[in-house]
## 1
Amino acid sequence: MELDIGTIIVATGYDQFNPSLKPEYGYDLYENVITGLEFERLSTASGPTGGKIEIEGKEPKDVVFISCVGSRDKQVGNEYCSRVCCMYIAKQAQLVKEHIPDANITVFYTDVRAFGKGYEAFYARVQREGVKYIRGNAAEVYKKKKGGKIIVKGEDTLLGKVVEIEADLVILATGMVPSKDADKIVNLLKLPKDPDNFLLEAHPKLRPVDTVIDGVFLAGCCQSPKDIPDTVSQAKAAALCAVAKMAKGKVENEPIVAVVDESLCRGCGRCIQTCEFDAIEAKEIREGFLFVAHSNEARCKGCGACSVVCPSSAITMNHFTDNQILAMVRAPFVEV
Ligand SMILES: Cc1cc2nc3c(=O)[nH]c(=O)nc-3n(C[C@H](O)[C@H](O)[C@H](O)COP(=O)(O)OP(=O)(O)OC[C@H]3O[C@@H](n4cnc5c(N)ncnc54)[C@H](O)[C@@H]3O)c2cc1C
């Protein structure tokens, strides 16, 4: 479909961390090691068991959650916190308790980050309801003998001892990673990414839903891991920014943009390769003969990168010509 549009909100979400990259947790070996997202499906009324929490046809009596699988983990290259796992573990643990009141539920955690409104109270409540939290990373999931129960081994760092817990079901709280599906649109729109590969906002505090490309906004986990309330808030902000721009009916260009002096341009194309915003293109000035650079004022962000690489000084920034800058440099120093 071809649509005539004024603004774009990118809301391409996240992918789950691939648990096979942590082979010590046995995701590829054992049927009863599943991810948090698979548990969501298992426990939903429209899921394969009609909402009953069953694994291999039986209700699990010993359930272990492992937090931070693929988050806060230098080994796999994801140093960031996925923000939602601590609370979805608490939610899922409570769900298991509700369905199977005599279940033994253990959570291996790194730190519990119950940061949102009412989250700390909810975390305290699931502990009161009997969910046991062990502070420490689980080291491995294995079976002692064929047909036996799986065992989760880890260190209780508060007691300073190694613990081994038998489990009928292990739930890996896999973190969020940037969406692969998003790459096509991200490349198309030339959106920059942050060091963790999520999409970069124009300013973390003052322009958190804008991108550096005018008229393109961000919402949700494409920008960084977040829960539903934060996603909804950001989506509403992005929608309002988009509507405000369109309601105005026109856009104002940056006053400082690149200007090409065609008589000086040699058509080397270095500026085209350098411009991050696709604001410079080649223009044929005589039929089949000479190409020179031409700047698109609507796209230009006035960063000046093209001006710096131009070997023939054919590009200057509007209101910041070389002569103006040199005049400022040479101006006599006046003490105030
Ligand atoms: C196991 C688990 C449990 C959770 N439980 C909770 C909870 O209880 N409470 C809570 O607040 N949060 C929870 N979360 C977090 C919640 O999932 C996210 O906050 C929320 O999904 C973020 O919404 P989003 O729209 O940014 O991304 P998504 O939900 O990922 O939606 C993005 C959508 O964009 C689509 N898409 C991607 N690329 C393209 C493209 N190029 N073109 C068109 N479409 C595209 C995707 O297919 C997807 O449908 C949980 C997360 C997990 C992993």
## 2
Amino acid sequence: VSLLLADALLPSGSRVDVRIEDERIASIVPAGEASAADGERIELDGALLIPALVDGHVHLDKTLVGVPWVDRDASGSVAERIRNEKSMLRAARVPVAERAERLAHQLANHGTGHIRTHVDIDPEVGLHGLNALVEVRERCRDLLDIEIVAFPQSGIVTLPGVPDLLDAALREGAAVVGGLDPQGLDGDASAHLDVVFGLAERHGVAVDIHLHDQGEQGTAQLREIARRTRALGLEGRVGVAHAFALGTVGPEDFAATARALADARVSIMTSAPPGLMPPVMRLRDDGVTVYAASDNIRDSWSPYGAGDVLERATTVAYQAGFTTDAELQVAYEMVTTAAAEAIGVAEYGIAPGLPANLTVVDARSVAEAVAAHPPRVLVLHVGRIVMARRWRAAEPA
Ligand SMILES: [Zn+2]
């Protein structure tokens, strides 16, 4: 299979012809210089070509995509919302594999090529959700790559049997071990993190912890996570989601915590919740990898979202008050290169030899793509066309 993407605009600003042979990028030459060869040719007319988007934190098993609209009156504590979610999913009556697969298609059609999805692991659901997502991962392998996190949504320490279930999940298809509010929800940060990091060590897997705890209770846990990361040599393989605490403490606590995270190469994910997004630029300046992701998409936790992580980059930029092209570029990196680095996507980017995981956006610059999250016009996954549509004609010269 040979495919020529003619006159593509790279994020760097150069206009190029990109030839794809089989699954990989074969060559990149200045626009107009590619030789005519057999195979398909797609004229991009200067549209923006980016590496496949990365949505490094979603919950495929929770989504109600494809289910008629559900009234949401959820409020109250996290524990109450967890109970509320269970009754909502039971009432939906659509099997988890079906809901998850529908969302995976939506993500792929928006140009996302790599996702990391959490899946609830608790005594009630057991490995049911995990098994469903392993099936979906296989069925969607031509659309996008799916990495699964075994996520103890209802706690670890306070519930009997969860460590064994997480252990089983890691043997049966999960590639990452999760955690959740070790102190705030589970009431015992040490015991919780003993289990999480113990499993990471035993299975040689990455760690991805949800942390909503705010204030100094939250930053103390972040520093403890960083300490354990270094102790086990897991630098670069541990991430924390939300980390609201970083936006709620004084400058000294922030600086000490950011330094610990940077030294341990612990990454931070934000879904840009109003008022709770960590200070993105300060963290980056301190050397911390920060990325953005969709998190909950139309489920009991959030009514929002259509599975477009580029739209999430828009939200990040908006919340952060970004207005210059350089700032919008940061938001772009948070759903591409930084996210790829954080979740460990091998072979990421646009260069000869790399897998052709590519997305074309109807935009004339990275800044425009973030500001407006315009429609995707072409999506390729390992050289195969996932989605293609007509878009506006080239602007007159
Ligand atoms: Zn989450």
## 3
Amino acid sequence: MDNCIFCKIVRKEIPTEIVFENDDVLVFPDLHPRAPVHLLIIPKIHIEEFAKVEESELFKKLFDAVSLMIKKNDLENNRYKITINGGGLQEVDHLHIHLYGKVASL
Ligand SMILES: [Zn+2]
């Protein structure tokens, strides 16, 4: 998608700190962090809706990256929150997972 900000980040057209990357998944800090740790975990392919994910393997790849980020940031034992955005009501129409860490509540 030409105008999607996350696709532009995937294509490296917008410079962003890349926290983690593999063939399918990209992780970078949220531009407007709402917690001391606030990462976005996204699929590299443009998928707008959760319900449009055809390969369930993609969820595993995304969740594996989330787990890795939880461990890397020392967030285990109830020190994080995960939300999945991808239904059309979110700011960016590209399926993404927020990982918030080190906060009492959000
Ligand atoms: Zn996109």
